[in-house]
Amino acid sequence: MNAEILDLLVLLQMICVIIVAAYFITRTEIFTEALERRLSFGSGMYLILFFGILSIYGTLSGVEVLGAPINVRDLGPMVAGVFCGPVVGIGAGLIGGAFRMGLGGFTAVPCSLSTALAGALGGAIYYAHRESPVTVGTAVGFAVGMEVLHMGIVLLISRPFETALNLVSQVSLPMILANAIGMLIFAKLITNLLTERRTKAERDAYHEELQRKKAELQIAADIQQTFLPKSIPTPKGFDLLAVNCPAREVGGDFYDAIPLGQGKTGLVIADVSGKSVSAALYMALSRTIIRATATWHPDVSLVLADANTIIEEQSDSGMFVTLFYGVLDEKTRTLTYANAGHNPPLLLRAGATNFGRLMPTGVALGAASEQEYGAEQVTLLPGDLLVLYTDGVTEAINGSNEEFSEARLMETVLSVREHSSREIIREIRDVIDEHAGGEPQFDDITLMVLKGV
Q1: Whole-prediction pTM value?
Q2: For residues 386 and 450, is the Cβ–Cβ distance under 8 A?
Q3: How far apart are the first and last CA of the chain?
């Protein structure tokens, strides 16, 4: 047993050299071709030569027992066959086998034959795993089985039989263990390499997806900002201001103030379902249609009915838009409106503390065909205040997942009711930021404030 342990230690020293060489070859583009099963003729010849030399090294550095060298000669062809295919495996096995045959000895023929078989059988395993990489357990099991077969061939062919049997009894365990350990280390190296490559591919794919997402968000933001008015008119007798604060993942909020002539202005605030580029494109479509229908019809009900018909016909994605549209008349100080499923604007009368709500008069645009929209009218006297908003305002959350809420919005508006529209909007935004406490904004925040002066 002591002799066997010493033989095993010598073989393990040989394996260390082979593993160092193997590590460097696995990091080459040539070996990558083999793993991806796209090996060119030149690369295949290079690998045959490399693993053939490893097989020769395994022979030369072996330990002689009873006139026959014990070694890890089969390791090179086995690895070549299992991981690089039968052509490389057989080529390396023939090189190693031919060299062993040249050394002579009573085991020359069975040992040479076994080395060639090691490469061929490794190639068979390669083909048997066409759909998935060879596992570590399969590779090590093959190495053990191959060395058992090697010992059997020696007993079958070598003569005198007694000498062959004596040889096998001394060298079988060290050679089986050494080749198994060598295959284990090599298979682990390749498994780690495949894991690294897979991780890198996943990381690259994630990075590409992230870049694509950033590009989409930028495109969506550009579309949204392009279609928002650069400035809005100031109706006589009123203080009007609107603002849009896009979220990181851009939605489809928009507002508009459409000059209609004769002292009338069309006021729009809307929220498109969805996020990113699709929402931004839908927002652009909706704004264009609303602007067009607003110039066709003086009746706000017909504006939304026609807009709904066009939007519903043009959309096959299941998207919709909630929208408030009102016509402000400077002369009569009236706001005639229709509300397509949008958050009810808040109306605070001068001197009052209770809010009124301009409730929906129909469903969201694009949600269903052939819809009718009712029209309502309110008078806005000096001191009256109307706050229009999207759900990004009331649904802004803090770290406890608590929404800002309509109640907080009302409380904030009451506290600054005497201020200008600009200051009211600034205060609402500041209070929302304070409520969020650093939590990311997940939806667009759009506000429009109309104050009678």
Answers
A1: 0.59
A2: yes
A3: 106
Select the CATH number that applies to the domain covering 2-204 from these four: 1.20.1250.20, 1.10.287.470, 3.40.50.10490, 1.10.1760.20. 1.10.1760.20
> Which structure tokens are listed for 239?
């203080």
Instruction: Give the DSSP per-residue string, 397-440.
Output: B-TT--B-HHHHHHHHHHHTTTS-HHHHHHHHHHHHHHHHTTPP
Same fold, 2-204 and 228-452: no
Task: Identify the pLDDT of residue 29.
Answer: 87
Q: How far apart are CA 139 and CA 161, in angstroms?
A: 31
- Over residues 413-422, the pLDDT tens digits come to 999 999 999 9
Long-range contacts made by residues 33-36, C-beta under 8 angstroms, separation at least 24? 34/83, 34/84, 34/85, 34/88, 35/83, 35/133, 35/190, 35/193, 35/194, 35/197
* 105: three-class secondary structure by DSSP: coil
For residue 242, what are the β-bridge partners?
A: 448
- Going by pLDDT thresholds of 50, 70 and 90, the confidence category of residue 252 is confident
Residue 165, CB half-sphere, CA atoms under 13 Å: how many?
3
308: Cβ contacts below 8 Å, ≥ 6 apart: 340, 362, 365, 366, 369, 371, 373
CATH of 228-452, one of 3.60.40.10, 3.30.200.20, 3.40.50.1820, 3.40.50.720: 3.60.40.10
Domain boundaries, the chain: 2-204, 228-452
Residue with structure tokens 């001394």? 170
Q: What is the pLDDT of residues 352-407, one digit of tens each?
A: 999 999 999 999 998 888 899 999 999 999 999 999 999 999 999 888 889 999 99
Higher-pLDDT residue of 253 and 447 is 447
Q: Quote the CA–CA distance of 121 and 78 in Å, as a whole number.
A: 8
